[in-house]
Amino acid sequence: MRIVRAAREAEVVAAFLRAELESPRWGARLQAFLDEDARDAAVLQDPGADAYRAELLDRHRGWLRRQGLFAGLPTELEWSLAALAPDEVLAIRYINWDWWLTASGGSRRPEDAAGRIRRGEIPGVTVAEHEPIAAQLAAPDAPELIAVGPPDFGSLVLLEGHARLTAAALFPDRLPPELDLFVGASSDIQRWSEF
């Protein structure tokens, strides 16, 4: 892993929201909040809208209140933009949620989930549906994956980007030599419910 530069939490929130807006699962809900606020998607990249984005992510997923996915996530994370080699990307573990435990056979490793998908062991999930996601992994406008771990980054867990990480495991040849992603470090990361 190569640290490219320090990152601001506001950048991470913006990347999270951009990815959620593109998500089949979360996009409509987030778009409804934007519509309710009479805002368009450009606000997700507006440098002057940091406070709004934090509040939007809180309404959408409990970011500021540290609820749901964010339960126990330390509020003081040291954020960086990092460049990871393909093997480092594929070493990132999924969150500790039932779906990802099942998909990976309990290991939380994306390569294990990819193997199960290839063998048809996960009903309703196909290799083909992940191909267009994999094709966008290195796109210059793609939102960064977001992972967290201890200060030595010895063990990273994905905060955002599970479908993209799965696509990377299914199509590792689509990963660039280095993939930029946001990483957050905290000595208290074990408090996060999903670590």
Helix content: 25-40%
What's the gyration radius in Å?
Answer: 16 Å
- When the domains are counted, the total is 1
Form type? globular
**Count of DSSP helices?**
8
- Across the major sheet, the strand order is 1-2-5-3-4
Average of the residue pLDDT scores? 96
Summarize the structure.
The protein is of the alpha+beta class. It has one domain (2-191).
Verbal overview:
With 195 residues, the chain is of the alpha+beta class. The chain has one domain (2-191). The chain is 38% helix and 14% strand. It has a five-stranded mixed β-sheet. The chain is globular, with a radius of gyration of 16 Å. The model has no long low-confidence stretch (mean pLDDT 96).
Which secondary structure elements does this structure contain, and how are they paired or packed?
Elements: E1 2-6, H1 9-22, H2 27-36, H3 50-61, E2 78-84, H4 86-90, H5 98-103, H6 110-118, H7 127-135, E3 145-149, E4 157-160, H8 162-170, E5 179-185
Parallel strand pairs: 3-5
Antiparallel strand pairs: 1-2, 2-5, 3-4
Helix pairs in contact: 1-2, 1-3, 6-8, 7-8
List keywords for this structure.
195 residues, 5-stranded mixed beta sheet, 5 strands, alpha+beta
